[in-house]
Amino acid sequence: MQKRLIVIGGPTASGKTALAIQLANYYNTEIISADSRQFYKELIIGTAKPTKEELNQAPHHFINSHSIKEHLNAGRFAIEANEILKNLFISKNVVILVGGSGLYINALINGLDNLPSVDEKHRIELKEEFKLNGINSILDELKKKDPEYFNKVDQQNHQRIIRALEIIRTSGKPYSYFLGKKKQNNNFEVNSYVIDFPREQLYNRINLRVDSMMNQGLLSEVESLINFRSHPTLQTVGYKEIFEYLDGKNPLPITIELIKQHTRNYAKRQLTWFKHQGDYKFLTADDFSNLSQEIINTLF
Question: DSSP 3-state assignment of 127?
Fold first, then answer.
């Protein structure tokens, strides 16, 4: 029987974990998480990890698997996840891959793009420009030189923006020119799905989730991570806003509203990415209870 990887993508707060567990139970299989923040065992509340009860319902990989003291980039994830996938396919015909980090999903399925070497002077220049002028200056350059990638990238992630501009300045070509050219040959079928909630419903789910995170103690979690605040993973939504609150930049009520706003913005960018990357089938989540059966029916 042909081995099959079922990919469940989608924006934050769309119910990916619940759907993945339903499918894992149906196929008696295991789940590989492709959420670039849930790898880290020190980050719990702000990453909306599966609960202990959910983790007990199906075996999960790449949840609490690494320390914040190291950085698991997409390339390293692809290498480690491929090894796990190979071992799982010895006894399983189906494996579930779930997450909202499209870059990590793409790295596992398609491999990494062959990017040109970067001139170190551009790296130094860009870091200095970001330090002096903030993110808007480098965003403006990216928008002018590579509007295609500008529309896909997480526009709050300065590391990815700088990385793209390093390539652009070095090569003289848009960063998007180099993307998607390398395709690896897999010995398994890939079926990819995205959970697509109506916008207003998704935004309401996000707002409720942020309130729940604050009630669970997100502020205390961020305070405990102050020594790691320069880590790329902590320069993301939910963490960076609270670091700014701790710096005295905004009062707490405004901080919470900013987290909600930035999370909604991030969800929109995630959906845009999935629409333009890979062969994803979008599933309307009006009746969430039927989503797993809809997937099962389309496969066999």
Answer: helix
* pTM, full prediction: 0.81
Alpha-helical (H) ranges within 217-287 are 218-224, 240-246, 252-276
64 φ/ψ sector (left φ>0, alpha ψ -120 to 50, else beta)? left
Give the burial string for 131-145 (b: 16+ CB within 10 Å, else e).
eeeeeeebbebbeeb
Domains present along the chain, CATH in parentheses: 4-112+182-299 (3.40.50.300), 120-178 (1.10.20.140)
Backbone torsions φ then ψ of 130, nearest 5 degrees: -65, -40
Let me know the angle formed at the C-alpha of 113 by 229 and 139, rounded to the nearest 5 degrees. 50
Residue-wise pLDDT tens digits, 10-57: 999 999 999 999 999 999 999 999 999 999 999 999 999 999 999 999
